[in-house]
Structure formats: C-alpha cells, structure tokens
C-alpha cells in the first residue's frame, strides 16, 4: 500500500477562521513542500482553492463534534493526520520521518501518536517510559493525555472517542480527562514523539478570536514569516489578562490571592469558591 493510501491530513477549522487558511498553507508549503498526502479543511460552508487542498463542508447545523465526525467518516485512509488552524507550522518537517511513523502505527497497531504536545502535558511527566527510540508511551491515566492539536490518529480510535453526540471541543477534552481518571483509562496504544515532528508553534496564533501579538512577533522574527490575516489584534490589556489567567490555571499555591487580584483588579468573574 502506498503512503498516500494510508493517511489523510485534516485541518480542523470553521468558516470564521478562513482568514488564516492562507497563512497556514503558506507555512505548510514552505516547511513541508514534499508532503504527498491529500489535505482537507473541515469547515461549514466556505470553499478554498489551493493545490492538493479540498474542503469538507459540513453545514451550519452541526457543532464541533458533528463536523469532525462527518469529516472523519468521509476519509478513506486508515490514519488521519490532524492540525488545528491556529497552531502554525514553524520549522521544516521530515517527510520520511512522518512516513516511518505511519508504518510504525500500522505495524504496532498504534491508536494515537502525538506529534506536537503543544500544551506540554505529556513530555513534562517524570520518569517517561519509551516504546521505541524517541517514542514515549502516554500513561493511560494522564489528564490531557489525548488532544486534537497535532497528531496522527487511527480512524477507528478517533471515531470511538468522538462517540455519537454533537458537542463542543471543550466537552471532548473534559470527556477525555474523565476517561483518563477512570479505572480503564484512555485505552488503545497511545504514544508521543519526543521530537514533536509536526513542528507546530507552542504559541497559538489566535486567542479569544483575536490575533495574539506574541505570535505575530514570533513568526516575523524567528520564522521569517509575516502573518497575512487582518483580523483584530489583542490589546496589551487583553494580553495581560490572558497571561494572568493562564498563570492562575497552573498555580499550585496562592490561588486565593490570585483570585482576589483577578476579581478586584482585572475584572474576572469566578464561579467556584476555591
């Protein structure tokens, strides 16, 4: 079986993010020019014209999970490579290495291979267990051990995780966290490439519907690419609030003080007492 018959690439998106599709594929063509796989944008109604890129239009009546499931069911290959539209490729991708991953997944019956770990939930774990050189086993009970940011999935495993309902991306994440906390765990053989070979930037390009200034600066200065999207850029105040909220979410101590600052100075509203 040819490599092109084994894997299809999906860019999981929606109509309101169509302004960054050119940016995503400009960087994909710069850093993965020899990619021979078919790409699809998963969206609601919009078309996109670009070589080897098609759209899977799912309509406006479906939520995130419904669109995702409809797209996956249209894919004919056993494996699906997945990107999100707001995490851009930042460095060259080794095409032969990606092929070797697909072969490994086929041979060893791998369910999920993380190639981005953009939230660093996996590789920051102590005492990493290796399945193969540079390939880490994801613990079955690891919170956020599975995400949709940059990975290769076995199609059947992905459909199993999506289930039958139609819901938000947030619910998909919380459901996987609940699954990780269960006695059974996440299931399947789930792995992570410690070289993060899909080479996505850790800095999200869009936050709260706005371009993130740190991402604009990073891609211009470090990658040599100027983002074309003309959507609104986050204000300095919104950036400070976002960074504060992120810091608070990771804080192990002083949460009450941080909550007081967030409530009285930054204007946040909280719905829990801790």
Report what the structure shows.
By secondary structure, this protein is an alpha/beta fold. The protein folds into two domains: 3-193, Spore Coat Polysaccharide Biosynthesis Protein SpsA, Chain A (Alpha-Beta Complex), CATH 3.90.550; 208-264, no CATH class. Helix content is 34%, strand content 16%. The strands form two sheets. A nine-stranded mixed sheet has the order 3-2-1-4-8-5-9-7-6, with helices on both faces. α1 links the parallel β1 (7-12) and β2. α2 runs antiparallel to α4 (155-162) and α7 packs antiparallel against α8.
Summarize the structure.
The chain has 274 residues and is of the alpha/beta class. Helix content is 34%, strand content 16%. It is globular.
Q: How helical, in percent, are the residues?
A: 25-40%
Going by CATH, what is the homologous superfamily of the largest domain? Spore Coat Polysaccharide Biosynthesis Protein SpsA, Chain A
Low-confidence stretches: 257-262, 270-274
Q: From the 3D coordinates, which CATH architecture of the largest domain would you assign? A: Alpha-Beta Complex
Strand content: 15-25%
Number of domains: 2
Average pLDDT works out at 91
Helix/sheet category: alpha/beta
The best one-word shape is: globular
Task: List descriptors.
about 270 residues, alpha/beta, Spore Coat Polysaccharide Biosynthesis Protein SpsA, Chain A, nine-stranded mixed sheet, 8 helices, globular
């Amino acid at each position: 079986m040819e490599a092109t018959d084994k894997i299809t690439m999906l860019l999981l998106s929606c109509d309101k993010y169509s302004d960054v599709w050119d940016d995503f594929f400009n960087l994909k063509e710069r850093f993965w020019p020899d990619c021979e796989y078919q790409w699809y944008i998963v969206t609601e109604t919009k078309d996109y014209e670009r070589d080897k890129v098609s759209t899977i239009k799912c309509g406006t009546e479906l939520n995130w999970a419904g669109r995702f499931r409809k797209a996956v069911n249209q894919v004919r290959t056993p494996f699906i490579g997945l990107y999100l539209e707001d995490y851009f490729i930042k460095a060259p991708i080794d095409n032969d290495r990606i092929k070797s991953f697909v072969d490994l997944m086929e041979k060893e019956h791998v369910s999920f291979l993380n190639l981005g770990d953009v939230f660093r939930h996996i590789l920051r774990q102590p005492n990493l267990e290796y399945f193969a050189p540079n390939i880490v086993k994801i613990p079955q009970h690891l919170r956020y051990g599975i995400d949709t940011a940059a990975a290769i999935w076995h199609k059947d495993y992905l459909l199993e995780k999506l289930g039958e309902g139609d819901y938000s991306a947030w619910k998909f994440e919380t459901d996987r966290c609940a699954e990780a906390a269960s006695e059974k765990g996440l299931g399947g053989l789930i792995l992570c490439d410690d070289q993060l070979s899909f080479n996505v930037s850790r800095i999200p390009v869009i936050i709260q519907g706005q371009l993130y200034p740190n991402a604009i600066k990073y891609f211009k200065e470090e990658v040599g690419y100027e983002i074309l999207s003309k959507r609104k850029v986050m204000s300095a105040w919104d950036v400070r609030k976002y960074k504060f909220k992120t810091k608070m979410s990771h804080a192990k101590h002083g949460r009450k003080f941080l909550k007081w600052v967030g409530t009285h100075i930054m204007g946040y509203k909280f719905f829990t007492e801790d």
